[in-house]
Amino acid sequence: MSLKLSFLWHMHQPNYVDENGIMCMPWVFLHAIKDYYEMPWLLSRFPRLKATFNLTPTLIRQLKLYEAHRYEKDKFLTLWIREVSTLEEEEKKYLVKLCRSALFETMVKPLKRYAALYHNENFTESELRDLEVLFLLAWCGNYLRQNSTVVQTLIRKETAYTQSDKEELLDALLKFIPQILPFYGSLLQSGQISLSTTPYNHPILPLLIDMQTAVISNPKTTLPQDPLSLKDDARKQVDKAIELYTEVFGQRPTGLWPAEGAVDEKSLHLYRESGIQWIATDEAILLKTLSSSEKSLCYQRYEYDSVFIAFRDHALSDSIGFRYRFMEEEEAVKDFMKRLDEIGQQNPDASVFVIVDGENAWEFYRNNAMDFFLELYDAISKSRTVSLQKLDEAAKEVRRELSSLQPGSWIYGTFDTWVGQSEKNRAWELIYKTKRETASSYRKLDKETKALADEHFLASECSDWFWWYGEDHYSDFLEEFDTLFRLHLIAIYELCRIPVPSDLYLNIFRKRNVFLSQVRPQFPLSVEVDGKESSFYEWLGAGMIDESKAFSTMDGAKRIVQKLYYGENETMMYFRLDVNVEQFLQAYKEIKLHFKELADVIVLPVATHYQQDGLTLACKDMVEFSIDKKYCQKKSNLHLQLEITDKQNSSEFVPIFGDIEVCLDDYSKNWFI
């Protein structure tokens, strides 16, 4: 009997459209030319394989904006297409900021001219034009690189791009975007894929229905003041999602991925009433729901309130999302298939659900993960013990009934990523305040104006705003996200012809950036690697990253590393990890050092003491280790990220934000991130 494996690739972007109908950030466009077509295209190269794709309404609507208005509704592209000589200085800064947002190692470095320009502080007009074109070329996926003569020609040209080149490239890309949704439709009709949707503006639906659900999930959660039930909005979020899906694909959806896998019993009841037959969430919810005697039954099929629930395999899904990008493709696929085999041996009738963001992980992989997916799909197609199922098919299998369902999301099984911290709560409180203060005027609006106000209310409830508020995530575009959120609430007051409260013009997020939790190295170090602070001066002048203040829930588990200290002298690099040493020695097996410029990964085993060939490690009160600079192969600059792997092969990456740049030509220069 074969194990039944289901993939769900979740395609989502927040609603970047401001009150004037302009998309303020270009990520929908960029992922459209890189991922939204490419992911189903890669699957289509294996006609017998099946998968499920989740397309959110916010993504669909913004793709439709490009189809209807081309670049005119995109702030970035309207600047990008202009002659460089006509740009104001602030407009140039905005363009450069975005052009530097591409990942250096996998997207910038393969284009030599892009890499040469990337770190420039000042640009001539011709250099800025090259940077603009190369940025879009770097975002073009493998499908376009193989099938677009315009893209191929401009990649070969490498430099000295003209305004005509820019116009030709943008025209080709804008003609490509209208092919994306019909391609999904054709694969749906052929039966190779099933499609699902998400509530209209990607809200955390259980929190809309009843904010007290957050406390049921985690009693330590601090709730916003005076919460309101937004259950009427929750219903609108579901109804409008179904309406849009039906309009685009000609049939009602049978399945739904709740935003962030956020579920509770009330939201499941709402989905069933709306005709939804299946949903998906994380296995953390199942483990919280099952009794201790039932926890061995994780790979069974379950339903609650007559709705089938696919419980996401957290380890397998996060391996694809976060871990395999550091491995050779063949090694990663062998690991994936081995884990499936182990599950199948222990659970003969197992159903395994792998659910991953379908767009954001691939730029961390070589070649936009195409090599990985071709290797993975080939291995599955040849397997005699694994068969692929669409979630529509899995929902028709015999399933066990759950008598209850614990609330939570895919992150820790709680809602803490979206509520509880002061900034997140402040955003909720502004929504509640807007609801209360505009209620009377809202009821008097005509039908058309009321519909516009509804759009802004539903947009303000998007999970993404709350994701970026607080201390658990960081983005260079925090100010833009914050402004977009508040503009939706401001627009509601204006539609209701009520004076806008002054606090809606104030930033919710506190001015900060990732460097607030970091100190750069100041002096060369001389460290005795013995696992303890031998003297007060030993780490004086070291660089420091406070991971406890900058942790990322994207990495899926509570972090073991609280602080990282680092530095060097003429011959050695030194590192110190502040951890719970007892837990570290018991649960973790190795530390990998990924130098992006070096072919080999340096691996240190976790032990009380280790010394071999220029590598030394000691664990006592802390973890200390050193590396002889002979490993650096006479490079002048290296970029480093640590991978801390536990005995279940789950990984934690340090630092979370980017990597450490090591300036080796002069050890007195700062390292920095």
Provide a brief overview of the structure.
The chain is an alpha/beta fold and 673 residues long.
> Could you tell me the mean pLDDT?
91
Q: Name the CATH architecture of the largest domain.
A: Alpha-Beta Barrel
Shape: globular
Sequence of strands across the biggest β-sheet: 11-12-13-14-19-18-17
Structural class given helices, strands, pairing?
alpha/beta
Number of spatially distinct domains: 4
CA gyration radius, whole angstroms: 26 Å
CATH topological fold name of the largest domain: 7-stranded beta/alpha barrel
Number of strands: 22
Q: Could you give the distance between the termini?
A: 50 Å
Helix content: 40-55%
Question: Which residue ranges are poorly predicted, with pLDDT under 50 across at least 5 consecutive positions?
Answer: 550-557, 667-673
Q: CATH first level of the largest domain: which class?
A: Alpha Beta
Number of DSSP helical runs:
26
Description:
By secondary structure, this protein is an alpha/beta fold. The chain folds into four domains: 14-35 and 64-179, no CATH class; 182-199 and 228-401, Alpha-Beta Barrel (7-stranded beta/alpha barrel); 422-512, immunoglobulin/albumin-binding domain-like (Up-down Bundle); 515-663, Immunoglobulin-like. Helices cover 40% and strands 16% of the residues. The chain has 26 helices and 22 strands.
Looking at this protein, list some descriptive labels.
disordered C terminus; 7-stranded beta/alpha barrel; 7-stranded antiparallel beta sheet; 5-stranded parallel beta sheet; 673 residues; alpha/beta; 22 strands; immunoglobulin/albumin-binding domain-like; 4 domains
